Each structure stands twice: as structure tokens, then as C-alpha cells.
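Lecture notes, part 5. Sequence design as translation. It can be helpful to think of inverse folding as translation between two languages: the language of shapes and the language of residues. The source text, in C-alpha cells, appears below.
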């Protein structure tokens, strides 16, 4: 039994559309006088086929660029145009014909220029058909282009493809299916056009006009053959269109991979930048300068990390930017001339290209170098696969090989490990580490994970709300966050508020730690008020010690209760509730953890505590 009304509703519409057709086919053979309609039907069919095909070609040639521009532009003009080009759909075709008379009629300037040849002629038929059929093509093309991921066009730009090449080699192939559907609709609409045609070009007869003439002069029986011919022609076109383009298998040519060539080794150029941009209501202002060739950008979601990378790639327009790569200003160059490799968050492979075609897609990509990276990234066996036949990790590696095959001067990676499971992420991270080491490539890696920064960068830039929180050598940033917000971003678990007295003793609830003088000599204290003062502090879980017994003097251990125990492989993470209310997270080697609810002591080594003046 059917559980939803959907099939019934669908069946009702199918019946409504097909029953008249069936009734016609059942009754047509019995119509007396049907044959009298035959003379002239061949000419009308030819006129309809030729004019509908010419009209479709014309609206495709002009409508595809229009659809592309409408899809890519967010301007008010594009919005108005998008509505205006749909108007012919709302007009009765007869009125469309009347409007066209005002443009190309025999008494208009254009009409007179062509000696009245734009009406009552095959040209007139085409003009009428174009007017009513164009919206179908434009609407289909616009939605097909709107579905193209802008990141794919961005990546193509960074691979050296100029604006026209991006349209022809990226947007058009991706949108091809939707455009083909639009062409079919436009052809069918042009083929069936009657109202505008009868006003603008009564002659030569198209099939619909011929049928109308037969009907009004001879009666229903005389329309049998024209209707049959029209149905037959439309059916043939629909069947041809339904076969679609040749299947992949028929187009496949064997991939021939040349002998690999390793990249030339040279020390990557130093990267410095100062950039600002506005994204809607979001303001971004970033500055970086450092000696390391490999930079990691860390920050919370929405802090502007990807935007920074897109500014560096040249696919986002800055308000102001100076990007120095080896002393040369990249900001003055368009994306296609920056000589960079860019991997956005999603692999953005082109769905119509096989792996080998992807990795050699970049302008000037060296096939021998592409072959090297295919081999190095373990992709050679996948060379003839399409993107939908790859796993997420494989697709990321193809994106990486594609970027590297152009021997970029700078590699930009936007969360290359996001969404990958642990083994695949570890493998890709190791591969990337090897690539960076072997090529001495300059790179910028956007990530949420401090481990990525530790493994893949010498410098780290921390971001929050579009601004730089901290920028410096990775080791310093990870071990000495510039403030509590930076510490939180780096995943430090024990962050608190407290007070440092004149003897440099930190007091925070039950915690009392006598700080070393070095604790107040970090950059954060440079222009700050010296103790006694309020502070924020932090200590890493692995620095806190759990001891057997607890006291309350801060040296012999603070009494605490084990509130939670989480087993994380080689370590156990404890949540300790200190007597007096505060909580501390502590890690101990697995097997050495106390039981849940047990009493224990906690020692906080003074040299492990970081303190910042309270803001
Ligand atoms: N095209 C845009 N128009 C308007 N606002 C934008 C646009 N692109 C990004 N933004 C805004 O800019 C801010 C920064 O975005 P961005 O993608 O750089 O963040 P992110 O740090 O990379 O975040 P995530 O880690 O989640 O990817 C966000 O608030 C976002 O909503």
C-alpha cells in the first residue's frame, strides 16, 4: 500500500499530460480527410526544424554569456536584468510578437534598413522564436553557472588560468549539463512557437502556423498529419537529447605518464605581509613578518584565517595589501600571475577531468614534474580516475599534486586535514612534512590544530576577530601564549584569574604559587603595571603533578578530589577539584591515575606557570 499521496499526485499530472495524446493517437487514424493536409507539411516541417535550430544556436551563443554574468554578479543591475530577461515568459506570445513589431516591423528604422525583410520571412520566424525561447536558455544557464563552486574558479586562477580560460575550461564544462537542458527547452519552445510568429512572420509557414491554417480553413481532420509530424519530430529530438553526451568510457584515452622529474631544490623566499579587507560587516587586518619559511595561521572559527589565505592567493580583493615574497610585491599581481599553489578547504577538483588531467591542468604545469608528484603522493595508480572515484584523502593529495606540478614559489593550504580520519590525516600530514622539507618550499597553513603548527611550521600567527593576537616562532607561541585568549586558542586547559602580591606569590582560590622573577619578564609585562596586581594565569595539564597526599601551603600539594578520569591511550586525563572550589586538568601516564573520587594532592611547578597582567 502506498504510504504517501505523492505517487497519486504525480500520476494525476502524468495522466493529464498523456491522455489527450493517447486520445489523439487512438482517433487520428479514423479521421476522414486527414490526407488532405499532407501537401505543404514537408515544407512547414523543414522551416520549423531549420528556424528552431538557428534560434537555439543564437540564444545559446548570446544566452550562455548572459547566464554566466547573471550568476556571477551580485550587483543590483544584474538582479534587475535577471528579472527583465524572464519577462517574455509572462507575456502571451501574441503580445511578444506585437512588441517585436515595434523593433523590427517594416516601418521601424531597423525594419527599413533591412527593406522589410525582418518580417514575413524566415528571419522573422527566427526573431520571434529567439524572443520567446531565450528565457529558457538564460534561466537554465544561470542556475547551472550558479552551481559552480567559486572556489573552483579561484583555484583555476591560482593555477595560471585567465578570466576567459576559467569560463571555458572550468565553468562551462561544469555547467554543461544544465546548459544542454536549457538548449533542449529553448529548441522545443522555438519549434512549438506560434503566437509571436503569426504576428511577425506569417510566412513561410512553420508547422504550428500551417496547422492553424489547416484547422481554420478545412477543420480538425486536416490537422492530423501536421500534429503527428510535430509530435514525431519533437520525440526524435527528445530521444537524441536524452542520450546525452558520449559516456566517459567512450571518451577514455589511456593516460600516458612521462618519466618523472624531481623539483629543483632551492630555499623558499621569505614571506612578509600587511593586509586589510572588508567582508560585509567583517573587518580584517593582518600583519606578519618572520624569518621562518613555513607559517601556520591558527584561530577560532570565523576569525579570518581563510580570508587571509584568499588575500594572499589574490582571489579576494583587499582594501590595502602589501605582500612581499622574497622582496617582490605579490599584491600588485592578479592571482594567475602570482606563481602560487592554493588548496582551499575542499579539494575543488574539476569533475570532468581525470587525475592525470587535473595535475597537468595548471598553465605551464610540467608533465614530468606532475609525474614525480603523482608518484611521491602515491597517486600513480589512480591517474585515470575521475574525482567521484576518489576518497577524501586521495582527492586532497591530487589537489596538492596539482598545485606542486607548477613548481610554485608559495604554497597556501587551507585546513588540508579537515574531515579526514586519524590514519589518513596522519599520513597526509607526514607526506606534507616531507614535501615541505624536500622542496624547501615557502608555505602558509591554516589550521585549528596546534599539532599541525608544531609539525609543519617554523612561525605561527594566532588570529581572533580579524586581527593578529600573536605572531612569532612556533615554539615560542605554543609554549608562551601572549594572553589568555591566545592560550585558549592553543587548547591550554587550565586558565584562571588571580592576584600576584609584592613578593611575587600568585594566589588564585586555593592555589598559591611563588613565581620566579622570569615569569614577569615576558613581552606581556613590558609596559604593564608590576605586582601587586591582578593577573590571568595558565598552566599546562602535563606540567601539573599529582602527589599522594595534599596540604594547603602550595608546596606540599593542594588537597583535591578526582572528579573525572578519561583514558586517552598512553595518558589519562584527570579533572581534579581542589579543596576550596577551583578545578585543574592534569595528565598522568596511563596506569598511574588515581581512582575516580580518590583524594590526592596537586603540585603546580612555579616555572610552569605563565602569568599575564589582567586587562
Ligand atoms: N564573501 C563574504 N562576504 C561576507 N562575509 C564574509 C565573506 N567571506 C567570509 N566572510 C566573513 O568573514 C569572517 C571570516 O571568515 P573566514 O572564512 O576567513 O573565517 P575562518 O577563520 O577561516 O573560519 P573557519 O575556521 O570556520 O573556516 C567570517 O565572519 C565570515 O562570515
Amino acid at each position: 500500500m502506498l504510504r504517501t499521496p505523492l505517487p497519486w499526485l504525480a500520476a494525476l499530472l502524468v495522466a493529464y499530460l498523456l491522455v489527450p495524446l493517447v486520445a489523439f493517437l487512438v482517433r487520428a487514424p479514423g479521421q476522414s480527410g486527414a490526407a488532405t493536409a499532407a501537401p505543404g507539411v514537408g515544407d512547414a516541417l523543414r522551416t520549423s526544424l531549420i528556424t528552431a535550430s538557428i534560434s537555439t544556436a543564437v540564444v545559446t551563443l548570446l544566452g550562455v554569456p548572459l547566464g554566466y554574468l547573471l550568476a556571477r554578479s551580485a550587483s543590483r543591475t544584474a538582479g534587475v536584468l535577471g528579472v527583465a530577461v524572464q519577462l517574455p515568459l509572462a507575456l502571451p506570445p501574441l503580445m511578444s510578437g506585437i512588441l517585436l513589431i515595434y523593433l523590427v516591423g517594416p516601418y521601424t528604422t531597423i525594419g527599413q534598413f533591412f527593406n522589410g525583410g525582418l518580417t514575413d520571412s524566415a528571419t522573422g520566424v527566427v526573431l520571434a522564436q529567439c524572443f520567446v525561447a531565450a528565457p529558457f536558455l538564460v534561466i537554465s544557464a544561470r542556475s547551472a553557472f550558479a552551481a559552480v563552486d567559486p572556489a573552483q574558479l579561484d583555484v583555476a586562477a591560482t593555477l595560471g588560468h585567465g578570466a576567459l580560460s576559467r569560463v571555458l575550461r572550468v565553468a562551462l564544462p561544469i555547467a554543461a549539463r544544465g546548459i544542454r537542458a536549457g538548449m533542449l527547452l529553448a529548441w522545443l519552445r522555438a519549434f512549438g512557437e506560434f503566437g509571436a510568429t503569426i504576428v511577425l512572420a506569417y510566412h513561410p509557414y512553420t508547422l504550428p502556423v500551417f496547422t492553424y491554417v489547416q484547422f481554420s480553413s478545412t477543420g480538425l481532420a486536416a490537422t492530423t498529419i501536421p500534429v503527428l509530424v510535430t509530435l514525431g519530430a519533437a520525440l526524435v529530438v527528445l530521444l537524441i537529447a536524452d542520450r546525452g553526451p558520449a559516456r566517459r568510457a567512450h571518451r577514455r584515452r589511456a593516460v600516458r605518464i612521462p618519466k618523472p622529474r624531481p623539483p629543483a631544490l632551492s630555499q623558499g623566499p621569505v614571506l612578509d605581509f600587511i593586509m586589510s579587507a572588508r567582508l560585509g560587516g567583517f573587518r580584517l587586518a593582518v600583519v606578519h613578518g618572520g624569518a621562518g619559511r613555513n607559517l601556520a595561521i591558527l584561530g577560532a572559527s570565523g576569525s579570518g584565517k581563510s580570508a587571509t589565505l584568499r588575500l594572499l592567493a589574490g582571489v579576494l580583493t583587499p582594501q590595502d595589501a602589501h605582500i612581499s615574497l622574497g622582496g617582490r610585491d605579490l599584491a600588485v599581481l592578479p592571482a594567475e600571475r602570482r606563481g602560487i599553489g592554493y588548496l582551499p578547504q575542499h579539494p575543488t577538483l574539476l569533475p570532468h577531468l581525470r587525475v592525470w588531467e587535473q595535475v597537468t591542468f595548471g598553465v605551464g604545469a610540467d608533465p614530468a614534474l606532475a609525474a614525480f608528484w603523482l608518484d611521491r603522493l602515491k597517486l600513480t595508480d589512480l591517474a585515470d580516475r575521475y574525482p567521484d572515484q576518489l576518497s577524501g584523502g586521495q582527492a586532497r593529495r591530487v589537489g596538492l599534486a596539482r598545485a606542486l606540478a607548477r613548481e610554485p614559489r608559495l604554497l597556501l593550504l587551507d585546513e588540508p586535514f579537515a574531515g579526514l580520519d586519524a590514519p589518513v590525516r596522519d599520513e597526509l600530514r607526514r607526506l606534507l612534512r616531507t614535501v615541505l622539507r624536500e622542496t624547501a618550499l615557502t608555505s602558509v597553513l591554516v589550521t585549528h590544530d596546534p599539532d599541525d603548527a608544531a609539525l609543519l611550521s617554523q612561525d605561527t600567527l594566532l588570529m581572533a576577530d580579524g586581527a593578529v593576537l600573536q605572531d612569532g616562532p612556533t615554539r615560542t607561541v605554543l609554549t608562551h601564549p601572549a594572553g589568555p585568549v591566545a592560550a585558549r586558542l592553543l587548547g591550554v586547559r587550565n586558565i584562571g584569574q588571580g592576584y600576584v602580591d609584592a613578593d611575587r606569590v600568585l594566589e588564585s582560590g586555593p592555589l598559591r604559587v611563588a613565581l620566579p622573577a622570569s615569569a614577569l619578564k615576558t613581552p606581556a609585562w613590558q609596559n604593564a603595571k608590576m605586582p601587586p596586581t591582578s593577573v590571568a594565569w595558565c598552566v599546562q595539564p602535563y606540567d601539573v603533578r599529582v602527589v599522594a597526599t595534599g596540604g594547603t601551603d602550595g608546596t606540599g600539594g593542594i588537597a583535591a578530589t578526582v572528579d573525572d578520569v578519561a583514558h586517552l591511550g598512553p595518558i589519562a586525563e584527570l579533572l581534579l577539584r581542589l579543596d576550596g572550589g577551583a578545578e585543574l586538568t592534569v595528565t598522568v601516564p596511563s596506569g598511574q591515575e588515581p581512582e575516580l573520587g580518590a583524594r590526592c594532592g596537586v603540585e603546580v611547578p612555579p616555572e610552569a606557570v605563565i602569568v599575564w597582567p589582567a586587562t
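The translated text above is only one of many valid answers, since several sequences can fold into similar shapes. The pocket of adenosine-5'-triphosphate is lined by residues 279-280, 282, 299, 301-307 (CB under 6 Å).
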